[in-house]
## 1
Amino acid sequence: MKITFFSTQPYDKQFFTHCNEAYGFELEFFETHLGPHIVNAINQTDVVCVFVNDKVNAEVIQLLAGKGVKIIALRCAGFNNVDLQAAKQYGIHVCRVPAYSPEAVAEHAVAMILTLNRKTHKAYNRVREQNFSLNGLLGFDLHGKTAGVIGTGNIGKSFCKIMLGFGCKVLAFDLVADKELEGMGVHFLPLIDILQQADIISLHCPLNEQTHHLVNNATIAMMKKGVMLINTSRGGLIDTPAVIEALKSKHIAYLGIDVYEQEEKLFFRDLSSNIIEDDMIQRLMSFPNVLVTAHQAFFTAEALTQIAHTTLSNIQQLATQKNIDNKAAMLA
Ligand code: NAD
């Protein structure tokens, strides 16, 4: 059985090739995104394996069906980039990796908080230039601060536990309160209360119609002046122009983003010799209190091993039993 990968990076090839020794699939790797332009280049493949910025819309799915593709395997958790209805219509199975080291993403969110707060990135550069002054590096104690967590699934839950360890008061909003977290001292409250009370807000819900631009002019106005906002979930949760205005007015005092609404044209490639045409990302990067990382929160050896293993196991189960034991992995 052949699997064709899109948006392949060297590390994908490395981890999947190694993991595939136990499965024996035929693997084909394309560096390009999946799109209508490339479907013609696919030759007799049963499975396409895609990542977060491959746009798998109805047009692409129709073309894939025409090529005889039976399975679309996402090697990520979020699936906002796939038209599941169209996949069902064309009888193509869609699977994902519902959980792979949620700690990797939660720990990256915390790394962003610590960097923004204690300015270690600036201190590193400063000391290398023999500038040992502390002016401009003032931070605050996390201990005793209020962390607001939106979405307490696998990642949000791990994040809550870390913040409790720092001695933070942790408030959370989710569609369903998590009993284990409540037992640990996390308070589940309506969204508006989180926005009003949190010193740090971290987004861990999926991107869908309800959560699109969850952070907008109206919700920012409810936040504390001086709030820190962290987004390691999906760029579309944030209305970027509204956040830029709030940074300019100092309502938002710190912003950490690992995801960006227009990231598919930027992230996962070296554009250091290019002219960036996206003025919004350039504006964001010009603020001294904004930290941008390029969708790297998942990027640990443990997570990549788990992603490769779960993806290949999903494909094997779909091929042999038309189903996956882990129901959360099966999308269509
Ligand atoms: P999950 O499905 O385990 O948890 C999502 C949680 O969000 C659930 O508890 C769900 O009830 C809740 N939720 C859904 N709609 C909500 C709403 N309207 N308001 C509040 N909560 C809502 O998912 P996860 O594994 O924790 O991942 C969360 C998100 O993180 C993914 O959807 C993905 O977009 C993102 N992610 C990013 C990276 C990265 O590298 N930056 C890696 C993995 C996942």
## 2
Amino acid sequence: MAAAEFVVVANRLPVDRVETADGEEIWRTSPGGLVAALEPMMRSVDGAWVGWAGMPDVELAPFDADGIRLIPVALSEADIQEYYEGFSNDTIWPLYHDVIAPPQYHREWWEAYVSVNLRFAEAASAAVAKGGTVWVHDYQLQLVPEMVRNLRPDVTIGYFHHIPFPAHGLYAQLPWRDQVLRGLLGADVIGFQRSQDAANFLAAVKRRLGFETKASAITLPDGRRSHARAYPISIDTTPYRELAQRADIRARAVEIREGLGNPKHILLGVDRLDYTKGIRHRIKAYGELLDQGRISVEDVAFIQVASPSRERVDAYVHLRDEVELAIGRINGDHDTLGHTAIRYLHQGFPREEMVAMYLAADVMLVTALRDGMNLVAKEYVATRADNRGVLVLSEFTGAADELRQAVRVNPHDIEGVKDAIVAAIEMPRTEQSRRMRSLRKRVLEHDVTAWSQAFLKALEHASQHRHHPEEPA
Ligand code: GDG
């Protein structure tokens, strides 16, 4: 097989194995923003994507799906438990999200993480053409940049970190803190969501490894330079804008409102069921507003979509119990035969249905305690061509840096969240429209294509500089 000029490395391949109506098993590309952003690049320069196919203990040969060359990395059931559910999702995820849940440190998980990262790095190194580019994604693969650099010193390497990077006081807990920094520093460009994440990373490098840093540039002991900067990710706005105009989806939005007994206001939350998303805080605020009679179930309904996530990790099992107990209590206290307080949906939905919910929602509640970006906030904004609706947005999301005209909240401040919900419900249409126009301008201009182009441009620049170091960076 010909070597690829451009190789994406991510934990998951952008495909799912699905069964067709006539019982045939096929690969279907998953419609994520990342695929949409990278697809043109993958097609134009002969690209390949390295990742896990989503099934344990299955060895698969490289194959094509919808014109993208896919290179599967096999993971055993033990790898999934130790590298993925363990080190990635029960050590790094809670540590990097400000220790909202206690991170678990296990040496066997770290060993599995190292060996699986090496497997991804070997697959990428075998696939990439001489002088080509490798773009590594996310916290599951932080060691891959250095490993690829060792295996293939000729290639340009980028890394994008989708989740926050914590302040040094927290990061320092990680028993393998120096190894992870060195792993990331294998990349020529290290992209973060917010400038604060990049600053935290630069500070950790300086403090732990003593390397010289100047603005975004880090000079490594061998003279090589690496750059750490913010490249805030976004969405592919086209499908959201198009679906939001479709007559059947608009009709479905009306039907959703009717199904809730035609309340005056609909509040909506859409999240993976994850402790970082502040679902409990939002539910508590809404419940107290009902208890205090500031709102009623007839007037204000709340839809919470909590799509199932990481269901074998203990912290997620506990979270589900807590959320469901809290919702059960509120509904028990406040439901009437005609109205439900919280319509709770522990399910995943097709994108069409998500857009219908966005259109039905008068207020979108994004109350994450910590979130790299939060794409849901941007999706909601992209669907609101009518310039109506209010986005309530936690200041602890990456999106808060860009979406300045949202109603900002500190999700830990329950009184503040309650006041924000009431202010959102009562906001005059002229103000909704003024804010939404500004939010839409930002999201439509800075879409996922603008994001990937900015990152790839920085990589291109790094690559030229590596080959001609005498020119100014
Ligand atoms: C990580 C970072 C960063 C959710 N339920 C359904 C569904 N979704 C879709 C949403 C959205 C995506 O999943 C979730 O993206 P978020 O950004 O909100 O959060 P994470 O999953 O935590 O993503 C995050 C992101 O990476 C990108 O860098 O923004 O900070 O944590 O697109 O719409 N989609 C469908 N049905 C569902 O039930 N179709």
